[in-house]
Design goal:
Elements lengths: L22 H6 L9 H11 L1 H19 L25 H8 L14 H23 L1 H15 L3 H20 L5 H20 L1 H12 L1
Helix pairs in contact: 5-6, 5-8, 5-9, 6-9, 7-8
Length: 216
């Protein structure tokens, strides 16, 4: 460092500030702490992350409810009650309402019995998984084009599409709801049906990216 001299006409920093640290200076910077194993260090980091701790509590709560709730919930997940399908939250079927009129206690359908939410999720899974797998297997310019299409779909505002689609299918749904077997469409309305359609058309892009990355 003795040969390094600062040019008086330059604005450079003092070259002495960039001299290598001595052994004594290096030792003074060493901070010793208790050695911990992998799991103990992981738990220490987890406790410091507030978002991770909140997420852990939510996951444990869901797992607890998944095991405990079926023990006293009157409806099992595979149970089918004829006439109690497509009910809104806290809505009773004709048979259940008859039991209530007779003085019996009937547990309400807190989340309803509408099957369309599951149908939208299945469509998202099928479309996204198929699209993502094809994109990954094809590769090259096909993969590039398919992924750019997903980027374009990400930019489309779904609320605007829901409003436009609800206005477009309002009259067809009203005419279709008058036919036998399609009364549930009148109950749901064009807005709810358009939401399910938009879910199937737009929300598969995230699934497609996940499946593509796994295939790759």
């Amino acid at each position: 460092m003795e040969n390094l001299k600062k040019n008086l006409l330059s604005l450079q920093l003092n070259v002495e500030d960039f001299a290598p640290a001595s052994n004594d200076e290096k030792k003074s910077l060493v901070v010793m702490r208790e050695s911990v194993n992998f799991w103990k260090d992981g738990m220490r980091r987890l406790r410091k992350n507030k978002i991770a701790m909140v997420s852990l509590v939510v996951i444990l709560l869901i797992a607890f409810m998944a095991y405990v709730l079926p023990s006293f919930w009157p409806y099992s997940y595979e149970q089918q009650i004829k006439g109690s399908n497509n009910l809104a939250p806290f809505e009773y079927s004709a048979a259940e309402q008859k039991l209530i009129d007779q003085g019996e206690n009937v547990f309400p359908h807190i989340l309803g019995t509408d099957r369309m939410g599951l149908l939208a999720s299945v469509l998202v899974l099928l479309i996204g998984a198929t699209y993502g797998a094809i994109s990954a297997f094809a590769g090259g310019w096909i993969d590039n084009i398919m992924m750019r299409i997903t980027d374009i779909l990400y930019t489309i505002p779904d609320i605007l599409l829901i409003i436009l689609l609800a206005m477009a299918i309002k009259e067809p749904l009203e005419s279709l709801a008058t036919k036998p077997g399609f009364g549930w469409m009148q109950k749901l309305g064009p807005n709810m049906v358009s939401i399910f359609i938009i879910f199937a058309l737009l929300y598969w892009v995230g699934m497609a990216r996940i499946v593509r990355s796994q295939v790759l």
